[in-house]
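User: Some background: our group keeps a shared notebook of sequences we're curious about, and every so often someone picks one and asks for a predicted structure to add to the entry. Today it's my turn. The entry only has the sequence so far, pasted here. Could you supply the structure so I can complete it?
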Amino acid sequence: MAKTSGNSSKQPELGKEAQSVVAMLKRAGKESVRDGMARYAIPADKAFGVSVGDLQKMAKRLRNTDATKNHELAAGLWETGWYEARMLACYVDDPACVRPAQMDRWCGDFDNWAICDTACFALFDRTPHAWRKANAWSRRQGEFARRAAFALLWGLTVHDKEASDEPFAEGLVLIERAATDERHFVKKAVNMALRAIGKRSPALNAAAVAVAQRLAVATEAAPRWVGKDALRELTSPSVTKRLAARR
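Assistant: Of course. Here's the predicted structure to add to the notebook entry:
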């Protein structure tokens, strides 16, 4: 019985901490920021209006030296459902504590590009599960769940310093397969992932350019746009010069 009592007393404590943060976010919110969210296609129906810069400053103050406490706070913040609380959860959580089941749960909750990209760029792409999830999520049907696959690939080009070219080459297969998805937020992420992979190394640039060239002559509008837009950057003098220096 003592063990049960201890667990039950811990949960309200976690909830209380998360609710305290939500109260802080409510006080910090600005109507002008909230009203401006619509211009960036971010739903404001459950938002306070706190800028990303202010959220990042809050995250630094909230982050503890204890990774477990950060993870627990992040879980509580995410469960509140508030936009800014979920953004904070992405900044506060510790990648070492993140498990595949959590990634799937959060991915299923993604309802806008900002939450999706922040979770992938600031947290998920630093976990050992990122590559598997990019592959799995590329087959999901939801717009933001599928976007998450390519946001992960995009983030991995920056944060996975040890990866060889091989997994990124496999990512190009996922990109070419998903390029026919006409939905705006999927199409944009596919394009960004293609461009990011193509700037990682000379060999990947050649492979990405080949994919982009095939897409650029597609009869469908979505892959044609992805290919042509990527080609402009991947074959630009600045990218060519930078990659040549790496040889």
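Suggested note for the entry: The radius of gyration is 20 Å. Residues 1-12 have pLDDT under 50 and may be disordered.
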